[in-house]
């Protein structure tokens, strides 16, 4: 495993090669990018792209040799100990590394996790930049070593810089660093040689060609470094470099001649016929080959070709699908165009029909487009568009849609409707409306046999447009039309089961948004059950995610979280954890934990929601996100941040067609925040400007900030009168958590009025409502410790809850500035130690679970035990205590 610091006398390095005149080219723009790079730089590009040359040249050019540790990973490396030994030795080979790092001796009981922790401890005192350059990291085949490296990357001191070169992206879980701007990525596109780079390369090889020839050379190679270097070597020996460069695209003629002579021309006539007529396919099966050739032995021929290594490769273990080697396919296409150009469109059309009729719509559409058969392409895409979306292939559907000429979309109502769907997915609602109107205006031109299907497409589009605009009555209306019995809609085909599930779910979502929670639960449950029965997991996750919010209102926090977790587990199994479909589930778990006073965990769930949210495309969910975030910051006492979140939610609400209950809830939270900031005049002015619609749909919710304002101004009598409609449910709030707050405010008001009995009754009612769901936050937002202490001395069913609240209030008020831990209560287990090592990374509990390949519940159990053993109550103090005890490396200088 080649390793160590870079030195200028390394005769095997590209730098030495450059000095000896073999033509390495300086890349100042990339050098500058590396110089300004973040803590971790990833150079990811195919073989021959110049990754190693770039990094070594940069180190040499900038004089960083003594501060750069280089480790090249050997081919197919599985040895974890060898890897980490190489890392340590490479770092020790630098000037500063030799002073800080301990020698690593080989050991039969080697533990890479321990080595990472030791590295972090040794490097904590690092006070100048040191580079660790890991070359060909794609050759490291140990998942354990990669996870350990990931931990080092996440927790390394700020002066330790990493440069990783690899042929493909690695599973290193670097999304956190990417979000924090700690990663610089250099891809193949940046490594491609420009015209000037190529000119310098040829000059170093003492080759001169014209600008035109050089341009052709760069275009033919697409700036691929290895291709240009091979060309330079050939040009240096060629008697006429100018002509060679100009004809470089023809230099592959030797390959073509070889393939013609040694492969194609040696095949029987029927095999050659098959190869040529199927060359325009990305993959081919026996039946498809038979359709294109009119024969019946396609599968046997393809298997025979593979058996004889004739540039044919099977794609499945059953050997039913095959592809041709890329160079061979290029040759076959060229030969087909040369010998039978007129047949090419016919072959594409035949392939399109075969694919479409055998359940391969994507390939069918592509070949129909290649044949110029826009009608067939439109029909196949129209018939399968929503199926592709529901299968998670929306990006492919958009790519196919972009291939249609604009003139076709203008003339074909079905294609216009599909373009409208594409605009909806991009959030261009006005453009979507324009194309939808065009489709409706030209609907008469749709053939009678397709008219029913077309009407379903239009209904789905109207439903989607209404949903994105927040026009909830229109959503309910369109969903109802879709779900109507066929005899009620004679011009519309019966719904397919997947579209029926979509309509049920859309109806349920709209009903939930207007407060019709029982109807919403019923339709969402029907949609989820249907989606599960027809095996549409994306739709099932969609339904479950939106079932969770009504459960908060109608059932309990426990049930709501259970439903949300079903949705979350489902999307995780399918790799959709950052898809918008799961956002409501993250919201529910976050909001429940927020009301329960588990604010750190609530923040973790909202972080997951933020990654999946596309607020500009779904402002309704964006508004909900900022509502919950604002409430969380309000409960935490971070009032400026809460205000910013509520205002962000209001901006998104302005994009929707009508005021929703959640909009009034946002305004209520904003006013409560302003009161905490002492902005009583602003609150009074805002209450005076409430619209009739806001009062109609959220009278109870608005009473809360009004009562809080009256209490803030020393008028408990009026506050109690204001709260009365909430307490008797004539002006309901959105869920019982807010009713807990209403009864608490009533208790505070009655106590101020000297009515101890009424205060006790109100407080007992607040505790009744809070107990079943473990709600703490209202009592922390409006602390009343004396009232609670007095109540604990009375006959109450909630002495335990009161003790929990008072303990939380006491801990919050007397929080220690730093941890003085001197010893563990008991030793940490190996699993607990592994979880501990991830705490300084700021990864959420679900993310740590993914990294360690365990359940979230397991991580939370380990955290609970960790906190108990460290005698702390949260993550921040756990990190401090672990550092005091030497279980974690100390914070690096300046971190």
Quaternary class: single chain
Overall form: globular
Q: How many distinct helices?
A: 48
Biggest sheet features: 6 strands, mixed
Task: Output mean pLDDT.
Answer: 82
Which structural class do the helices and strands define? mainly alpha
Gap between N and C termini: 32 Å
Could you explain the architecture of this structure?
- With 895 residues, the chain is mainly alpha-helical.
- It is 65% helix and 4% strand.
- The protein contains 48 helices and nine strands.
- It has a six-stranded mixed sheet, with helices on both faces. Strands 7-9-8 form a three-stranded antiparallel sheet.
- Strand 4 (130-135), helix 7 (143-155) and strand 5 (160-166) form a beta-alpha-beta unit.
- Helix 28 (497-513) runs parallel beside helix 30.
- The longest helix has 22 residues, at 448-469.
- It starts with a strand and ends in an 11-residue tail after the last helix.
- Residues 6-23 and 815-822 have low confidence and may be disordered.
Keyphrases for this structure?
single chain; 895 residues; mainly alpha; three-stranded antiparallel sheet; 9 strands; 65% helix
What's the structural blueprint in terms of helices and strands?
Blueprint: E1 3-5, H1 14-19, H2 28-35, E2 40-44, H3 51-62, E3 68-72, H4 80-92, H5 95-100, H6 112-123, E4 130-135, H7 143-155, E5 160-166, H8 175-179, E6 183-187, H9 188-191, H10 195-204, H11 211-221, H12 225-237, H13 241-246, H14 253-262, H15 269-277, E7 284-285, H16 286-293, H17 298-307, E8 312-314, E9 321-324, H18 326-340, H19 344-357, H20 361-370, H21 374-390, H22 394-402, H23 406-411, H24 413-425, H25 429-441, H26 448-469, H27 472-483, H28 497-513, H29 517-533, H30 537-554, H31 557-574, H32 583-595, H33 599-612, H34 619-636, H35 639-653, H36 661-676, H37 680-688, H38 692-712, H39 716-727, H40 736-752, H41 756-773, H42 777-781, H43 785-792, H44 799-813, H45 830-838, H46 845-852, H47 856-870, H48 875-884
Parallel strand pairs: 2-5, 2-6, 3-4, 4-5
Antiparallel strand pairs: 1-3, 7-9, 8-9
